[in-house]
């Protein structure tokens, strides 16, 4: 589009590229078998080269899912405005950045002008206080919030995540929750920057150094929300009330606690019934029965929601000295080349392989299946990704149950939806 208009990329040094959706996670030898994927790769390589854009290509050591590599390289920093042609750009809000997905024509506009028109958003303060129970993760917090406020509850809003639970969370946990702000309908989500943010960023490749670091921290401190800030809305949750959560339907809002029953239409709010009926038809699970015990065919650990090193560590803790159930296909896809390298240095790959999981190359993989990793037919997956829409994982009739990576590991071992807390104790 820029070429057609005779425009240039205005600030190539403020743009980075990687490749994630289309890469195979088994054989990454070029040319890719998938002709379309190969064409896209070549276009990306050529466009980056012609326009002076850094491209983190496969094998560079820096390739991976965009929402994983930018934070890990220190490219994502507090106070930045970050746009990317991908809805889960909200992830970067974990650093106190305003980060959101944009459409293709807006990508053109940003490349040409480094600016974008945006209507002012309302701010909803989402406070979570207290300590999460063992076996309950940031993913459960995200699913719980979306279940409570609805998948459209956040339309017109940015979500500010705060409270003592967020104060204690690692950057990776904060990223998991911000990643799914978009699934709750919010344009973006953020956590105010604090000492955990600075500790994470310090000494990363693109973080400021020497006296620039002190200046940056002073500025980052100044952009935190004031304690007397006014919000358009305010919602509070108790961390202790959040259970390991699993989706039973076709939207990320259709989640329930692991001990709960798949809700009957009559128990739901009127506005949720239509989509529930559609989900009953599609998912073909038994309404009124526990979600626990639902047989699983495929287990996927990865994605920009839960493909980071801490996610793999938790899943490996569950998988250690156990074995994947018969007839279950289970695989682990690190979110980036750096995550993969780190996991291998810690021996996590071997734990997974010994337990019968496949250990793959980085990419989006079966989160979206724009690559060879796809469900077949009516298969049901336990997935650490963020979307369970109809056909999402590559088969037009495939079914997806969203949960934390530790819960996916538990499902792989038991061959059914299982309460990870029983394996961890
Ligand atoms: C393909 C891409 C544009 C899409 C998105 O915007 O999120 C994808 O990453 C997804 O998760 O559905
Ligand atoms: S991992 Fe999934 S959600 Fe994230 S960018 Fe890739 S396809 Fe989208």
Automatic annotation (TrEMBL):
GO terms for biological process: L-leucine biosynthetic process. InterPro entries: 3-IsopropMal_deHydase_lsu, Acnase/IPM_dHydase_lsu_aba_1/3, Acoase/IPM_deHydtase_lsu_aba, Aconitase_4Fe-4S_BS, Aconitase_4Fe-4S_dom, IPM_dehydratase_rel_enz, IPMI_cat. It comes from the Bacteria. The keyword Lyase applies. Keywords: 4Fe-4S, Amino-acid biosynthesis, Branched-chain amino acid biosynthesis, Iron, Iron-sulfur, Leucine biosynthesis, Lyase, Metal-binding. It is an enzyme of class 4 (lyase). This is 3-isopropylmalate dehydratase. Catalyzes the isomerization between 2-isopropylmalate and 3-isopropylmalate, via the formation of 2-isopropylmaleate. NCBIfam families: leuC, PRK05478.1, PRK12466.1. The keyword Membrane does not apply.
């Amino acid at each position: 589009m820029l070429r057609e208009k005779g425009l240039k990329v205005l600030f190539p040094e403020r743009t980075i590229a990687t490749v994630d959706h289309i890469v195979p996670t088994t054989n990454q030898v070029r040319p890719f078998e998938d002709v379309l994927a190969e064409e896209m790769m070549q276009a990306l390589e050529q466009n980056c080269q012609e326009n002076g854009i850094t491209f983190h290509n496969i094998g560079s050591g820096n390739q991976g899912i965009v929402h994983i590599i930018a934070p890990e390289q220190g490219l994502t920093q507090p106070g930045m405005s970050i746009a990317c042609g991908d809805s889960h750009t909200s992830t970067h809000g974990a650093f106190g950045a305003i980060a959101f997905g944009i459409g293709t024509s807006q990508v053109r506009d940003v490349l040409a002008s480094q600016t974008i028109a945006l209507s002012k958003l309302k701010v909803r303060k989402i406070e979570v206080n207290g300590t999460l129970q063992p076996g309950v993760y940031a993913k459960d917090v995200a699913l719980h919030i979306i279940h409570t406020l609805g998948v459209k509850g956040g339309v017109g809003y940015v979500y500010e995540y705060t409270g003592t639970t967020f104060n204690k969370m690692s950057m990776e946990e904060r990223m998991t929750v911000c990643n799914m702000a978009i699934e709750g309908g919010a344009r973006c989500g953020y956590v105010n920057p604090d000492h955990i943010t600075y500790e994470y960023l310090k000494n990363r490749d693109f973080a400021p150094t020497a006296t620039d670091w002190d200046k940056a921290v002073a500025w980052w401190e100044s952009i935190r929300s004031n304690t007397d800030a006014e919000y358009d809305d305010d919602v509070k949750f108790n961390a202790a009330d959040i259970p390991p959560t699993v989706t039973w339907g076709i939207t990320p809002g259709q989640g329930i606690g692991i001990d709960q029953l798949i809700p009957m239409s009559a128990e739901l709010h009127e506005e949720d019934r239509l989509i529930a009926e559609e989900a009953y038809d599609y998912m073909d699970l038994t309404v009124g029965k526990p979600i626990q015990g639902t047989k699983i065919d495929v287990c996927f650990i990865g994605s920009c929601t839960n493909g980071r090193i801490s996610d793999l560590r938790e899943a490996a803790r569950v998988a250690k000295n156990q074995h994947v159930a018969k007839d279950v296909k289970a695989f682990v896809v690190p979110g980036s080349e750096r995550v993969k390298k780190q996991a291998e240095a810690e021996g996590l790959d071997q734990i997974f392989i010994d337990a019968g999981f496949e250990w793959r190359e980085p990419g989006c993989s079966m989160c979206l299946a724009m690559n060879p990793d796809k469900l077949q037919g009516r298969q049901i997956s336990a997935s650490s990704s963020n979307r369970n829409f109809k056909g999402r994982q590559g088969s037009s009739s495939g079914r997806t149950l969203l949960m934390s990576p530790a819960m996916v590991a538990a499902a792989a071992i038991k061959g059914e939806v299982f309460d990870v807390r029983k394996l961890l104790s």
